[in-house]
Specification:
The protein is an alpha/beta fold and 218 residues long. It has 2 domains: 2-130, Macrophage Migration Inhibitory Factor (2-Layer Sandwich); 140-211, no CATH class. 36% of the residues lie in helices and 21% in strands. Strands 2-1-3-4 form a 4-stranded mixed sheet. Strands 5-6 form a two-stranded antiparallel ribbon. It has a two-stranded antiparallel ribbon with strand order 7-8. The longest helix has 25 residues, at 85-109. The protein is elongated and about 65 Å long.
Length: 218
Amino acid sequence: MMLIELLTPPGVLDAAQRDRLAHRMIELLMASDRPDDSHAPEVIDSAQALTQVLIHEPATWVVGGKEPVNPADPPRYLVRVTAPAAWRKDMSAHAIDRLTQALVEAETDAGRDAGRLRHDPHAWIHVIGVSEGSLGTLGHPMGSLDLIQQLTAPHRDAIARMPAEDLPPGRVIDPVCGMTVDLDSTHLTLEYEGTLYGFCNGQCRRIFADEHGMPLTA
């Protein structure tokens, strides 16, 4: 579903550090900015299972036409996050913040000055959107709607059982992904069989409408 590629100078991270950083990148990227409004835990687990991290150590790394980056200097980092293009705009700020945080933690653990990643351009995060029809698995293309369907369909029963009686007034659970939605601040709603549903994004709304044979006019 998502691919995270980290480029770092050779020898900056040992095997254990690479492993910890890779796991931390996935953990932070999947964490919601608002824990109370997170997706259902089962959906997050499925998303993590489809997220891959690759760490590369380029043999040549030149910045600004100068001498190659010296591994003895404070290390540079480049992170590329590849995701469906439909998700890119909404996820970019979150991904840039969280992946930078993962690098800050790694620098701190290594005893280096982690603060420089916040005031010097030593870590770049590129969020790249893959056009619809250009991402595939199981031998065929997978659109962004197909991916959300694959992530959420096995967990719909668990989502339907999520307790809603303790939610604040005006809040409902997205029936597709399990996220808590504020009805007062969204137009992404549908009424079905007398129940008003709210959705965290238009794609969850589209999936619900398609599955229940409901035409969408907006």
